[in-house]
């Protein structure tokens, strides 16, 4: 393994609090967003796929981490097809 990754691919996707890790845990909504860690961008779901956005507020919000993780898996599988 050479430790390099392609920034134009769909990997790695991860989830994090919609408000960000710096937000007070007592005021978080429990919602989650998907983040493209390599590109340092947030994922916005659009018809037919996704769009990477720079502002956390523009990212698609999911009701919980499970929903966000399932969607991230679906996006990865669609990219492989």
Verbal overview:
A hairpin with a 4-residue loop joins strand 2 and strand 3. This protein has 81 residues and is an alpha+beta fold. The protein has one domain (13-80). The chain contains one helix and four strands. The protein is globular, with a radius of gyration of 13 Å. The chain has a four-stranded antiparallel beta sheet with strand order 1-2-3-4, with helices on one face.
Strand order of the largest sheet: 1-2-3-4
Based on CA atoms alone, the radius of gyration comes out at 13 Å
Helix and strand element order:
EEEEH
How many structurally independent domains?
1
Global morphology: globular
Which runs of at least 5 residues are low in confidence (pLDDT < 50)? 1-5
Percent of residues in helices comes to 10-25%
- Give me the count of strands: 4
What is the helix tally?
1
Whole-number mean pLDDT: 86
Structural class: alpha+beta
Major sheet = 4 strands, antiparallel
Distance from N terminus to C terminus (CA atoms, Å) equals 24 Å
Strand content: 25-35%
Features of this protein?
26% strand, disordered N terminus, single chain, 81 residues, four-stranded antiparallel sheet, alpha+beta
Please render the helix and strand layout as text.
Layout: E1 13-17, E2 32-36, E3 41-46, E4 49-53, H1 65-80
Antiparallel strand pairs: 1-2, 2-3, 3-4
Summed up, what is this model?
By secondary structure, the chain is α+β, with helices and mostly antiparallel strands. It is 20% helix and 26% strand. The chain has one domain (13-80).
